[in-house]
Design brief:
heterodimer; A: about 210 residues; alpha/beta; B: alpha+beta; 3-stranded antiparallel sheet; 9 strands; globular
């Protein structure tokens, strides 16, 4: 069988599989395939094994819904973390970004997406039910201590805001304080190019300059 | 050559999807180019100079560069952020529904200035109300009118006789009203009260000032919505996805105070 790249056999198959990946076009797929062909056998084996292990061993943490190897995940098991604060993020990579900031010591909940009505993604397609079950269980459950604050760390996009507002409506009856990440000017930004909503938020949340 | 590649337009962002590493593919609605799909480069990076001006429902002045595939946004300046919509869940869900309808009923690069003006006035009206139903119904009726899908409300579509002032019927499949006798032969036909018929005709007439003065009762509001949900799938050829979210939001009314913004302490 000859593929669209004028190749046949294993090379064509690899190129076809690689070009299914997001952001990888046919040219990049060909370049990657030839790179792998020329690289040592061990490198390809390690890549193949890593892919198989990733699929076989990755599960969702039953508590925070993050991707993990063991359940509950290391973050949920860490007794030094503050169990009274929960940070709700859209994707596992958002959790990684927040951890990189090293200023948050509470727990997380990963929604695995964001409400996107035009794409047919509603609350039922996200880990919303798991969040509510967790909030209702926590004060009495084995995890110990009740959640006192939930930080909505969804993206400041229309969908992220809608998701945060919707979750706030669900959580409000539980009497838990719900907060939202502040919005303002990012480091390295230029006032001249900032939009009016960002500028208004930056002014609202201004802070005293201390020496 | 370099200058002719660039063109200016005003636009409202209808939706965006992630595109590549840090880009977004935007669906815009413009006064003179109709619906446009363009790429905004690097808007997922925190220091992007474009991102804040290209949020959904923002009306912005844009400078675009023509390419062989999707045109590229090179400059953007907000004209109206429509923040009042984005900061309210009910308004957000209604505006998303209207945007989906506009997206579905529009062809790319087909100028439809009246539809642009209608969407603008809809967003402006929506920003000022607590109950979004009336602006949404007005938008639907007027968009149907502009798109050539005007439902018939004055004569029976079967026997062609003018409707008398009584409870008549409405059928999505037939494309509008049926008299009580003809409705018996249409399994999809629903009885419509005299009051609802009057409201539908008023919304169809397109007098915005008069429409804004309307006060709808809850049963009338629901009846109008149900009729449009019967009719619109025949026009758009499939169900509108965002109606589900409109229902979810309605079923989850706000109870406590809205969330607070603040620093971690």
């Amino acid at each position: 069988m000859t593929s669209q790249f004028g190749l046949s056999g294993p090379m064509a198959r690899l190129i076809e599989e690689l070009s299914r990946l997001p952001g990888i076009g046919p040219k990049s797929a060909q370049r990657l395939a030839y790179h792998l062909l020329r690289s040592p056998q061990e490198q390809s084996e390690a890549l193949a094994q890593a892919l198989l292990d990733m699929k076989a061993k990755s599960i969702l943490c039953s508590v925070c819904q993050n991707i993990t190897e063991r359940d509950p995940c290391a973050l949920c098991q860490d007794t030094t973390r503050d169990r009274s604060i929960l940070c709700v993020v859209e994707e596992p990579l958002d959790l990684v970004a927040l951890e990189r900031a090293r200023s948050y010591r509470g727990l997380y909940h990963v929604l695995h997406g964001v409400i996107s009505p035009m794409d047919g993604v509603g609350p039922d397609q996200l880990k919303v039910r798991e969040l509510l079950a967790r909030l209702q269980d926590l004060p009495t459950g084995q995890a110990g201590g009740g959640v006192q604050e939930i930080i909505m760390a969804t993206n400041p996009t229309l969908e992220g805001e809608a998701t945060a507002m919707y979750l706030q409506r669900l959580i409000a009856p539980l009497g838990i304080r719900v907060t939202r990440l502040a919005r303002g000017l990012p480091a390295g930004a230029d006032l001249e190019y900032a939009d009016e909503v960002t500028l208004a938020r930056a002014l609202e949340n201004r802070q005293e300059v201390s020496s | 050559m370099t200058t002719s590649r660039l063109y200016r337009t005003e636009a409202i962002v209808l939706r965006h999807v992630r595109f590549g590493e840090a880009d977004r593919l935007l669906t815009l609605f413009t006064p003179h180019y109709g619906k446009l799909r363009v790429v905004a480069k690097g808007v997922l990076r925190p220091t992007s100079r474009l991102a804040g001006h290209l949020e959904v429902f923002a009306r912005s002045a844009l400078l675009l560069a023509r390419t062989r595939t999707f045109d590229i946004v090179t400059q953007a300046q907000t004209l109206e952020s429509n923040a009042a919509i984005r900061e309210d869940l009910q308004r957000t869900s209604s505006a998303l529904y209207a945007a989906e309808l506009l997206d579905r009923l529009s062809e790319e690069r087909h100028e439809n200035y009246p539809a642009y003006a209608l969407f603008l006035s809809f967003l402006e009206w929506l920003s000022t109300v607590q109950e979004p139903e009336l602006p949404v119904r007005y938008f639907e009726m007027q968009l149907l009118e502009l798109s050539g899908y005007r439902p018939e409300l004055y004569i029976c579509l079967n026997c062609k006789r003018p409707l008398s002032e009584e409870a008549n019927a409405f059928s999505g499949a037939a494309g509008g009203a049926l008299c009580p006798q003809c409705a018996l032969g249409d399994p999809e036909a629903r009885t419509v009260s005299v009051a609802t018929q009057k409201v539908l005709r008023l919304l169809q007439k397109g007098d915005l000032a008069q429409a804004r003065r309307l006060r709808l009762t809850e049963p009338l509001t629901r009846e109008l919505e149900q009729l449009m949900r019967l009719y619109l799938p025949h026009v758009t050829e499939r169900d509108l996805r965002s109606t589900a979210f409109v229902d979810v939001v309605r079923a989850t009314p706000p109870t406590g105070p809205a969330y607070r913004t603040g620093r971690l302490d």
